[in-house]
Write a structure and sequence with these properties.
Elements (H helix, E strand, L loop, with lengths): L1 H11 L5 E4 L6 H10 L8 E5 L5 H9 E2 L11 E2 L1 H4 L3 E6 L6 H13 L1 E2 L8 E2 L2 E7 L3 H6 L5 H7 L2 E4 L10 H15 L9 H9 L5 H15 L2 H15 L13 H23 L4 H8 L3 H10 L29
Parallel strand pairs: 1-8, 1-9, 2-5, 5-8
Antiparallel strand pairs: 3-4, 6-7
Helix pairs in contact: 1-2, 5-7, 8-10, 10-11, 12-13, 13-14
Bound molecules: adenosine-5'-triphosphate and magnesium ion.
The site of adenosine-5'-triphosphate (ATP) has 13 residues, from helix 2 and helix 10.
Length: 331
């Protein structure tokens, strides 16, 4: 994040387009606003366009505006957001949602600062700094023909990649503290610091929703005032994930490996459930699972489950079952 911050500081003062890439919830919006706040046009407008939120047919008039009579219902002229961002920053969120026709209009804007209102006879000129964001891989969109390569080169003069939270786990503690203070103040609450057990769970969790997910979790904790809320949330999420395994799209995907991992995780959970249902009587559990007793012992060891019934001191949402092993002769 420090490297990213350094890069951002340098680029903010130069009027070049910036492309911010990163998963959902990593802070792309915040970075876009910071770029604006540090730019020479910080006194000018910051105009955000959330491309997927505006239906395709309306997006063109929203972005570029229209003249009176341009289409049925256009009773007066209306400037678009591009014009509103004059001498400021135009932030195009989820740029991959622009269709090809709009992409070429944007390309023209980036090339010579000119654009045309719908129904207008002449081009208009604006001075605007364009910042784009996406959580998709535009290179793949280019490959599949849905994103123009020349536009990509234009918007990608400087690229800022927001790292996902799981790649910057060292920041989790500071963020938790920040959100705790922030929401305690905002809601006039006095939620205490999280226990070290729960903090270690948060450090291990892989945060598919990134900072937004962490923020919401802490917000709930502050309002509801109990750590159980967070623990239960994480357990529920953990359970969904083995049905929906985490796949890293950055490199080659090994179908075999991903499937094996998911199967192992599923097997582990089934064994655990059956063991619990039979009060950790392993012979009964083996019978219920229709496998030999020896096979079950092997699987228990292989899955890293405790050999005997355990007593749970405090729920660990990611490893719900193993906490202390108090040996009880179960068989
Ligand atoms: N460094 C940070 N410090 C504090 N809060 C942060 C930080 N980064 C992000 N957040 C918070 O996390 C949430 C998500 O951030 P943001 O909206 O910028 O993400 P995004 O990448 O634009 O997500 P999306 O792709 O879903 O639009 C926001 O509520 C934001 O305030
Ligand atoms: Mg955003």
């Amino acid at each position: 994040m420090q490297a990213l911050r350094g890069r951002m500081d340098k680029v903010a003062s130069a009027n070049v387009p910036v492309l911010i890439q990163g998963e959902s919830g990593t802070g792309k919006d915040i970075i876009a606003r910071m770029i604006h706040a540090q730019s020479p046009w910080k006194g000018g407008p910051f105009v955000k366009v959330n491309c997927p939120a505006i239906p395709g047919t309306l997006l063109e008039s929203e972005l570029f505006g229209y003249e009176r009579g341009a289409f049925t219902g256009a009773y007066g002229a209306k400037p678009g957001r591009v014009e509103m961002a004059h001498r400021g920053t135009l932030f195009l969120d989820e740029i991959s949602e622009l269709d090809l026709a709009l992409q070429s209009k944007l390309l023209q804007l980036l090339q010579d600062g000119q654009f045309c209102r719908i129904g207008a006879q002449e081009d208009k000129k604006v001075e605007v700094r364009v910042v784009c964001a996406t959580n998709r891989k535009l290179e793949e969109e280019i490959e599949s023909g849905t994103f123009r390569q020349d536009l990509f080169y234009r918007i990608n003069v400087v690229n800022l990649r927001m790292p996902p939270l799981r790649e910057r786990r060292g920041d989790i503690e500071g963020l938790v503290q920040y959100f705790l203070d922030h929401y305690n103040q905002k809601f006039n609450c006095r939620a205490r610091a999280l226990s070290s057990e729960l903090m270690s769970v948060l450090r291990k969790y892989h945060w598919p929703g990134n900072i937004r997910e962490l923020e919401n979790l802490i917000k709930r904790y502050v309002i509801l005032g109990s750590e159980d809320v967070i623990s239960n949330d994480l357990i529920a999420r953990g359970e969904q994930e083995f049905i929906n395994p985490e796949i890293n799209f950055d490199g080659p995907i090994s179908l075999k490996k991903v499937t094996r991992q998911a199967t192992r995780e599923l097997e582990r959970k089934i064994i655990l459930k059956v063991l619990q249902a039979h009060h950790w009587n392993r012979k009964q559990a083996a019978r219920a699972l229709n496998i030999s007793y020896r096979a079950l012992l092997y699987k228990i060891r292989d899955a890293g489950l405790p050999p005997n019934r355990t007593v749970r001191k405090r729920p660990d949402p990611l490893v719900p079952e193993v906490v202390t092993s108090e040996t009880v002769a179960a068989d």
